[in-house]
Design brief:
Layout (H helix, E strand, L loop, with lengths): L4 H19 L5 H14 L4 E11 L2 E13 L3 E6 L6 H14 L3 E6 L5 H4 E5 L22
Parallel strand pairs: 3-4
Antiparallel strand pairs: 1-2, 2-3, 4-5
Length: 146
């Protein structure tokens, strides 16, 4: 894994936690996205919002279809939700985005959760160190304990 993605993830988690405490659940996802992006930019990080994710399929390349909520320093994908409960498809969505962008690490943050800890998931693609990984490809997300 890119050693630069981990410190970026700490910055994102710190800002997202502060945002969750300040704003609480119940706002639209786009509100959390704008505010979190601004918070990260104030810390000097490069943030891209709603970045198209290119798809290569059957000899065709196109940008329609998927958009990453936040891409931090071209190293870390952040997918935001504002729902009561995350569904297994949300983790699969992040894994798909990581694969398409060829990135090792992503964060899935649900601002709709009652606590930040409950709503924040670290997702690692093709990770071999099973002791430190929260979620691995081909593992049922419902079987994971945080």
């Amino acid at each position: 894994m890119n050693s630069h993605a981990k410190p970026r993830s700490r910055e994102v988690v710190d800002c997202a936690y502060k945002l969750h405490v300040e704003a609480g659940p119940g706002l639209l996802e786009t509100v959390y996205e704008v505010v979190l992006a601004k918070m990260l930019e104030k810390r000097g990080l490069t943030v891209k919002r709603q970045m198209p994710i290119p798809i290569n399929l059957m000899g065709l390349t196109f940008d329609e279809g998927f958009r990453a909520d936040l891409l931090i320093e071209n190293l870390l994908l952040v997918e935001l939700k504002s729902v009561e409960n995350l569904a297994p498809v949300h983790s699969k969505q992040v894994l798909t985005y990581l694969r398409l962008l060829n990135l090792p690490l992503g964060l899935l943050i649900n601002f709709g959760a009652s606590t930040f800890k409950e709503g924040c998931k670290r997702i690692v693609r093709n990770h071999k160190d099973f002791a430190s990984s929260r979620l691995r490809v081909n593992q049922n997300p419902e079987d994971i304990t945080l």
